Amino acid sequence: MALAEVDDSHPKLITFLSSLLQRVSESNDIIDSEFQPNKHGTSAFHGLSRPNISIHTYLQRIFKYANCSPCCYVVAYVYLVRFTRRHPQLHINSYNVHRLLVTSVMVSAKFMDDRYYNNAYYAKVGGISTSEMNFLELDFLFGLGFHLNVSPTTFHTYCSHLHTQMINLHIPKLHFAEDDQPSLCAAKSAKIHLCFGADHQDESAHQKQQLAV
């Protein structure tokens, strides 16, 4: 999937990502209500209550006002996968998905685009204070281990997977991910996470680089 194709299918990509995250959030909400009732304050991204705005409307709002390049949304998704993989105890649900979204898109735009809006602007778009936006950005960056680079191979793997799913016009069923097979998977803890096997090589190389420093 070329960058031009990402640009052409931009609105559809927004719809698909919001649908995917909605499915994951709802699944984890059900699991939490059964196994961890009233336990929502496990990270800086968790709110005390569910936002009234839907994930789809929220992502459309970011899309409308952020004016970032199409590739930023793919890279933001890569960051979300990396973040949840590094912090398996944090799973995406209705209490944190909105803050994770606006933070991942903002960080992606800063890394990918030559021009981008500041934190105060994204705070207004996201409906939070500037101080909270600043704190979430720092928490997200440290949570990623500042691993922001996305190789062309990883980018195109994510693009291809998303493009395939958008063509099929359905959300994939939740299942265990095999090596090098982009998918949603159910972790052993029974919490639903976003998993992409194709990113493992990037993660391993990054870890080796850190050890070598």
Entry summary:
60% of the residues lie in helices and 4% in strands.
Structural account:
The protein has about 210 residues and is mainly alpha-helical. The protein has a single domain (about 5-210), classed as Cyclin-like (Cyclin A, domain 1), CATH 1.10.472. It is built from 9 helices and 2 strands; from the N terminus they run H-H-H-H-H-H-H-H-E-E-H. Strands 1-2 form a two-stranded antiparallel sheet. Helix 4 crosses helix 5 (about 95-110). The longest helix has 26 residues, at about 10-35. It is globular, with a radius of gyration of 16 Å.
Features:
213 residues, mainly alpha, Cyclin A, domain 1, two-stranded antiparallel ribbon, 9 helices, globular, disordered N terminus
CATH architecture type: Orthogonal Bundle
pLDDT under 50 segments (min length 5)? 1-6, 171-193, 195-200, 206-213
**Strand segment count:** 2
Strand order across the largest sheet = 1-2
Number of domains: 1
The radius of gyration over CA amounts to: 16 Å
Morphology call: globular
- Following the backbone from N to C, one meets helices and strands in this order, namely HHHHHHHHEEH
* Helix share bin: 55-70%
The CATH H-level superfamily is Cyclin-like
Biggest β-sheet strands, sense, barrel: 2 strands, antiparallel
